[in-house]
Specification:
Blueprint: H1 4-13, E1 41-49, E2 52-59, E3 70-74, E4 81-84, E5 99-105, E6 111-117, E7 123-129, E8 137-138, E9 162-165, E10 171-175, E11 186-190, E12 198-203, E13 214-221, E14 224-231, E15 240-246, E16 254-255, E17 274-281, E18 284-292, E19 303-310, E20 312-314, E21 317-318, E22 345-348, E23 353-355, E24 360-362, E25 377-378, E26 386-405, E27 412-419, E28 426-431, E29 441-459, E30 467-474, E31 501-506, E32 518-520, E33 528-540, E34 543-555, E35 569-576, E36 586-589, H2 593-596, E37 604-606, E38 615-616, E39 635-642, E40 646-651, E41 654-660, E42 673-674, E43 685-693, H3 699-709
Antiparallel strand pairs: 1-2, 2-3, 3-4, 5-6, 6-7, 7-8, 9-10, 10-11, 11-12, 13-14, 14-15, 15-16, 17-18, 18-19, 20-21, 22-26, 23-24, 25-30, 26-29, 26-30, 27-28, 27-29, 31-43, 32-33, 33-34, 34-42, 34-43, 35-39, 35-43, 36-37, 36-42, 37-38, 39-40, 40-41
């Protein structure tokens, strides 16, 4: 769990001056070059094939970094294009984890893609293609891993494999995660005849790579083998890059004297940098790595890709890297014309103002035209339609509009309009029925206008916001590096919130002499709650309440689609817990933990004293505890809300804790349960009432509802 002091440090130091000689810039300033990609991506592998740069990465910020396999490509290192790669699934199941990919160009001219996956043990799998972007074919039709879990030593987790081609043509791999628990990084030689198995593999002794965690990366400088790696925790500010060097690819390795060489900077605008690769361009070296977002998403898995120059003091010494927001600007001359919307005045239907126990931050409309991949415009809530208007200052020729939505791998439905006077609008592009993801979305048409209006009407996933990293406008056309287009999605647009009370479960409405084997749900979704186990209707302190001893109520109707994925919710309950346990004590749950078994795909409201005491998400890095535990054996009003960006827990009308989140709620086969989770974890205490909505109440509404629903003594 991240310490609260980290969040407060982010606020205190976010715009403080740096002690480095290189003067940095404001993280929100227009035109800065880090991050280099508009979106949530991590574990980047940078390659250059021909005159095109490619970045293969983990798609982040969903289900423990388990987004679809994508690649970014560019000719100028400034304008990047995203493509969802076609990778065949395993025979037994579909692929969810596509972690830390790497790619090798074989002597046969083919391209070999390797990535980590933990769905059938933590293994490295291989694929082959005639192109760096696929389509890909399995190296093993039977899904035999290239590097298996438990290799080269028992229980060794085979993840984060990076491949290195030596000057003699041999190819080595370096892999491992949680290596501080598992005996050191692994190294082995890839069989070049098959490209699908390792030989001569062993573990590098821990003392040769001090303070390791994951993400080994091998490179060669002169005659020295430089083994770089990431240390500490990827979830917080301690994450860093270190290195050791040797005269042999197998070691022994000697640690660099100036470790770590890349770490969180003083003002924390570069936070938790690590899991990198290196680009060599002529005689210069550049380190490509990920860092955490700002404001920081809980758990540290909403990461963004950055680049900075890396300088060698000599063949065995890397200078300490100064991580920057400025990035690099002159790697390649761009042939793309100027963006005529850069720094243009913008207005919007709304924008999101993040207010929590950690942050006060605005996702301003101006961030859509600032050419800064660290900032975005985001609407005030996840309702649609929402619009953004750009004022170009004067009437200008427009030939192309490129829009970078928040999530590159999910489609958005939208229209683009243009106007000379800002009142009469004409259609520029109609994507109102679009089902193809992409970043950027490219729309071409030749018009003259002063104003451009983007209206977002729907998205592929429930609860996603109308949100744009950048929208760029051009007065001339230009070539795109590769003629690629993503496949059309078969998924219908996401269900929207009903903005209604879904569940109304209230002991006060039940006759005192009634049996309570079933309780009718008076909320919008209806249905009947059926009692399982020991629950009775009692009076405590003169208040009628359900006494949960070792039982629960389960609703027969399905969990509504408006609660799927990142759907918003409010859970509000009057509760009395006579004795608070350190774990369990689930008041309500509504997700299927077995569907994915990954963080943020499961949600529940709890009342325990442990690290998941309030918001439960299957992983201690994402769970939310109570800052101040509500006192035992007293009536409290507990309200858990999630608006699609921030999860909050209120106690008796007062905000107690909060965290930035993105959910992937799995509800397809789930049951809505009161008094327990899907595996038990029963609550032992009294519930007078429980209400659930498919939208987030604000604090004023929480207080109003608390006063309206306060249980009365009989």
């Amino acid at each position: 769990m991240l310490k609260n002091k980290l969040f407060y440090s982010l606020i205190i130091f976010a715009f403080a001056g740096t002690i480095f000689a290189q003067k940095d810039v404001d993280v929100n300033a227009p035109g800065v070059k880090n991050p280099i990609l508009p979106g949530w991506f991590a574990d980047p592998t940078i390659k250059k094939f021909g005159d095109i740069y490619y970045i293969y990465a983990t798609t982040d910020n969903e289900m423990l970094a388990s987004g679809v396999p994508t690649v970014w490509y560019s000719k100028d290192f400034k304008n990047w294009y995203n493509y969802i790669m076609e990778i065949p699934s395993f025979s037994a199941q579909s692929i969810t984890n596509f972690w830390a990919p790497d790619i090798v160009e074989g002597e046969d001219g083919k391209y070999y893609l390797y990535f980590g996956n933990c769905e059938i043990g933590c293994n490295i799998y291989g694929y082959v293609s005639d192109s760096p972007v696929g389509p890909w074919e399995k190296l093993s039709k039977k899904d035999v891993p290239v590097i298996s879990n438990g290799y080269p030593r028992e229980n060794f987790p085979s993840l984060d494999a990076q491949f290195f081609k030596d000057t003699d043509g041999k190819i080595y791999s370096y892999w491992g995660t949680w290596v501080h628990y598992n005996g050191g990084y692994a190294v082995g030689e890839l069989d070049k005849d098959s490209m699908n198995k390792m030989k001569n593999s062993t573990n590098i002794p821990l003392e040769q790579t001090p303070a390791p965690f994951e993400a080994a990366y091998m490179m060669k400088k002169g005659s020295k083998y430089i083994l770089m790696y990431s240390g500490a925790s990827c979830h917080d500010e301690t994450y860093n890059v270190r290195y050791s060097y040797s005269d042999s690819p197998y070691g022994p390795f000697k640690p660099g004297k100036n470790n770590p060489i890349l770490s969180t900077n003083n003002d924390q605008t570069v936070h938790g940098p690590g899991h990198h690769s290196v680009l060599k361009e002529k005689d210069d070296y550049y380190i490509v790595y990920h860092k955490h977002d700002y404001p920081m998403t809980r758990g540290g898995l909403a990461r963004q890709v950055c680049i900075d120059k890396m300088i060698f003091e000599n063949d065995s010494t890397i200078r300490t890297i100064v991580p920057s927001i400025k990035g690099i600007t002159d790697l390649v001359k761009s042939e793309v014309p100027a963006d005529i919307a850069f720094k243009a005045k913008t207005t919007a239907s709304s924008f999101y103002h993040l207010k929590s126990t950690q942050y006060d931050y605005e996702y301003k409309p101006s961030y859509a035209t600032d050419d800064n991949n660290a900032t975005m415009w985001k609407a005030s809530d996840n309702t649609t339609p929402q619009h953004l208007i750009i004022d170009l200052g004067s009437e200008k020729k427009i030939k192309r509009i490129m829009t970078q939505f928040e999530f590159a791998s999910y489609y958005y439905q939208y229209t683009l309009e243009y106007s000379v006077n800002g009142t009469k609008w004409n259609l520029y592009a109609d994507r109102s029925k679009n089902r193809t993801a992409g970043s950027p979305m490219i729309d071409d048409s030749e018009v003259r206008a002063r104003y451009v209006k983007l209206t977002i009407s729907a998205s592929e996933k429930t609860g996603l916001y109308a949100a744009v990293w950048n929208i760029k406008v051009y007065d001339s056309l230009f070539d795109i590096p590769l003629p690629l287009k993503n496949k059309e999605s078969k998924t219908f647009p996401a269900v929207k919130s009903t903005k209604k009370l879904l569940v109304d479960f209230d002991a006060a409405t039940i006759q005192s002499n009634s049996t309570i084997s079933t309780v009718f749900n008076k909320g919008f979704i209806g249905g009947i709650f059926t009692k399982n186990g020991d629950v009775s209707l009692e009076k405590v302190d003169g208040i009628k309440a359900f006494h949960f001893k070792n039982g629960a109520f389960v609703l027969d109707n399905p969990v509504p689609e408006s609660l799927a994925w990142n759907g918003s919710y409010t859970l509000a309950t009057w509760v009395k817990n006579p004795e608070i346990a350190k774990e369990g004590e689930i008041l309500a749950s509504w997700c299927d933990r077995t569907r994915f078994g990954l963080a943020n795909s499961y949600n529940a409201l709890a009342y325990n004293s442990g690290p998941y005491g309030a918001g439960v998400h299957l992983d201690g890095h994402f769970d939310m505890k109570f800052n101040k535990l509500p006192e035992a054996d007293k009536w409290h009003y507990l309200v858990l809300t999630f608006d699609g960006v921030v999860e909050k827990i209120y106690v008796d009308g007062v905000l107690d804790n909060s965290q930035n989140m993105l959910l992937s709620s799995a509800i397809d086969k789930a049951k809505l349960i009161i008094g327990a989770s899907d595996i038990g974890e029963n609550f032992s205490g009294f519930i007078a009432s429980l209400r659930m909505y498919d939208y987030a109440l604000n604090q004023d509404e929480v207080v109003k509802l608390m006063n309206q629903t306060k249980p009365k003594k009989e």
